[in-house]
Design brief:
4 helices; about 0% strand
Length: about 140
């Protein structure tokens, strides 16, 4: 009877990719909040960044759960786009619900910035994977 290949390394790699992608999303959303707070010279660095970031972190987390992003955490479509739009849309709803500022210029900046961050690194990973694949074919 032929033995089956051990799926453990594949599962571990998938789990590691999901953890790294979730960590990258978190760090990039925190960076977005920190950059924005610094640009507006606001005090309370740590609590201020967390106060700004939490609605977007919650929106991204909800997108991760709703779409099971861990199954393809580094894919641009639909996972990366869903995390981006979830972070922005749900983040803005949560900001409004908690009395934080939601004005059109901020919505535009957040949409563009988070798109570059959350979709951008996934595009880079995808391009690197294609490059690696082409090199292996040679």
């Amino acid at each position: 009877m032929p033995s089956r290949p051990d799926p453990t390394p594949v599962r571990a790699a998938a789990r590691n990719a999901a953890v790294l992608a979730a960590l990258a999303d978190t760090v990039l959303i925190l960076a977005f909040a920190a950059i924005g707070r610094d640009a507006h010279q606001r005090g309370d660095v740590i609590t201020g960044v967390l106060s700004t970031a939490w609605p977007f972190l919650a929106g991204a987390a909800i997108a991760w759960l709703a779409l099971r992003v861990w199954r393809g955490p580094l894919r641009v479509w639909p996972e990366g786009v869903a995390v981006w739009l979830g972070a922005v849309a749900l983040g803005m709803v949560l900001r409004a619900a908690t009395g934080q500022t939601v004005v059109l210029p901020f919505v535009i900046v957040a949409t563009l910035s988070l798109g570059v961050f959350l979709v951008g690194y996934r595009l880079i990973v995808a391009a690197a994977g294609r490059l690696k694949g082409r090199r292996q074919l040679r």
